[in-house]
Each structure stands twice: as C-alpha cells, then as structure tokens.
C-alpha cells in the first residue's frame, strides 16, 4: 500500500460515518472480538479503545483477526481493486496538483476508462473524490489546529483560496470559519 497518511482520529471518523469511499484503504480490527471489517461496515460500532487499524489484509490477518461475515472485506473484485488503487493514490497525493492522466498512468488504464470505472464504483469522479479528501483534511485541521484558513487551504492542496472556500461550502454547507466556530475551536 502506498504511504497512506490518515491519523487514528480520521480513520475513526470514517468508520463512524460508514464511509464506503475508504473501503480497501484500511481495515478496522476489534481487539475484543478478533474480527476485522471495512470502514463502511454497518455492524455495531466498537468502543474506540478496542479498535486497531491496519492498511492491508495480510497485516490484519497476521495479527490474528478474521474477516467479518457481514461486510466480507477479504472478497475482492478487479474493478474495485483499480478504484481502490486510485483512492489510495489520491489520499496519498492530495497535497499535489494532480491531473487525470497522472492517476491513469499510476493504475495503468486510459483516462477515459479510469473516469468511467471510478464513477461506477464510487458514484463520483476522481476530481470530486480528491476534493472530498481535501475538504475532509481541511475540516480535520480546522478542528485540531489554530492555523489560519489560508494556511490550511494551501496545506491540503487547493491552488487558490476561492476554490477552497467554494469546495468547503459545497461539502460542509458552511464556510471554514463557520465550521471552526461550530466545532468550538477558537
């Protein structure tokens, strides 16, 4: 797996939200049941203290966990695997300026086929998925740091503040400053 940079808190947020878009990028293992799941699994959520995260099925199974019978994280599909490689690439490179050709070259398919396949698997384009990652990272930084909105804008890979504010408002239904105030960060 590529150099995925998600904190424990970010991964925890994804499993609480049952976010399907992170399936295959990491796995949630529950210490008390010795079962591992996809981030989108609809099973009852464990206590935070009983959770460990792994990036590969091999690692989680070597640690002694078995696959969940509900979400079946060990079952793979070739198209889903390409989409997961794209998601991992986007999560790992969200800070950089990325064009569709870069992503297509990385997974070894044409840009046209990549866009079609990715949209079929995730219901969004690689560009909107990248925007989602950037806005999620920005929201996390707004909550956990006192950095300025402008610093965060460039830190998460947006090329201009106006695009950052538009994308943030579209995804979170409020501005970055309003989001920070709603979350109680001063």
UniProtKB/TrEMBL annotation:
**Cofactor dependency:** Zn(2+)
Keywords, A to Z? Activator, DNA-binding, Methyltransferase, Transcription, Transcription regulation, Transferase
Q: Which GO terms describe its molecular function?
A: DNA-binding transcription factor activity; methyltransferase activity; sequence-specific DNA binding; zinc ion binding
Give the HTH araC/xylS-type domain ranges: 84-182
* Keyword Methyltransferase attributed: yes
Q: Does this entry carry the keyword Methyltransferase?
A: yes
Highest taxon of source: Bacteria
Report the protein name in the record: AraC family transcriptional regulator
Check the UniProt entry and state the signal peptide residues, or none. Answer: none
InterPro entries assigned to the protein according to its UniProt record, in alphabetical order: Ada-like_dom_sf, Ada_DNA_repair_Zn-bd, Homeodomain-like_sf, HTH_AraC, Me-P-triester_DNA_alkyl-Trfase
Q: Name the GO terms of the biological process aspect.
A: DNA repair; methylation
